[in-house]
Amino acid sequence: MNIYGQTMQKLRDYFISFGENPAKAKIVFKALYEDKISSFLAIDKLSMPIKTKLSVDFSFALPELLAQTDSEDTSKFLFRLSDGCTVETVLMRHDYGNGVCVSTQVGCNMDCVFCESGKLKKVRNLESCEMVGQLLYIKEVLRLPVSHVVLMGIGEPFDNYDAVMDFVDIITEQPGLGIAARHVTISTCGITPKLLQYAERASLNSLAISLHAPNDALRSKLMPINRRYPISGLVEAARRYTQNSNKKVTFAYIMLKGINDSVDCAAELAELLSGLTCYVNLIPYNKTRSGQFEPSDKTQIAAFFDVLKQRGINVTVRREFGSDMNAACGQLSSDYKNNGEQAL
Ligand code: SAH
Questions:
Q1: Is residue 210 in contact with ligand 1, taking CB distance under 6 Å?
Q2: What topology does CATH give the domain 64-325?
């Protein structure tokens, strides 16, 4: 087992399983994430037999960095996992701190028509240690401070629910990596039953729902998941989240020229979301290699924005990150397949 995949609860259960005091889990967390030890032998507060047992039972393996591309505000990392699969992670430099965009699966099965990441079918789910590994590598090996984490890399977080929940618990644990729960954003295409399950958790993170259309007819064309979980149920699940968390939910809306960017769509969206405590985040479409879409004109984005604003919806336009180096949302991972040797 990999130690970076253990939640505090799992480590407590581990100690209990051989009759030890579960409070030792806290000592291990502090040693791992605050003192940054890379051998259990370095934990002074544990006895030799326990250090030896931990060393036998757990590894410290991190993903291996294969390639890194940097631009002014963004760095993209390509990691190799223990079975040879690769994943991409992006570091975004904001004025309020660094954010890491983590991948949750190798490939993705959601098949959203505008998304490059979804062109690679899902190979497998990432384990929690592989998600923690993406963050730890950037934070501890490259020594770049990280305050925010978004689950907006490759994959659908709610299609890998248990491992993603473990990941979130591990990185927000105290003592630990020092990431605040509200600084972790889970982004989902809308797997409604999982969202309902998530909304009942004791500690809730920030939530983004990739909506991209104001009605089922259009959304089902853009996002096949909508055929299974239509908009009305999704919005109700979002409402439940807002009630239980006392937080606003963010609806991401990619602006696709001539497809979903009319002022009529904006009015329909405002109607759909009226009464919900939410933000709408308008996202300029990043043109992908196989892109059959065009980004909306700035004037159209402004007109769409104004309609939402006038109707009382909180709306922002997302700053684009990394579009100059194919590190933007929906553009991850296919690069390496296409130019594998160069990436090394
Ligand atoms: N599966 C999750 C998280 C990964 S995608 C989800 O659907 O939310 C992260 C965000 O990038 C989503 O909002 C997704 O719709 C968006 N996205 C995908 N392709 C894009 C593109 N070409 N341009 C802009 N945003 C894109």
A1: yes
A2: TIM Barrel (3.20.20)
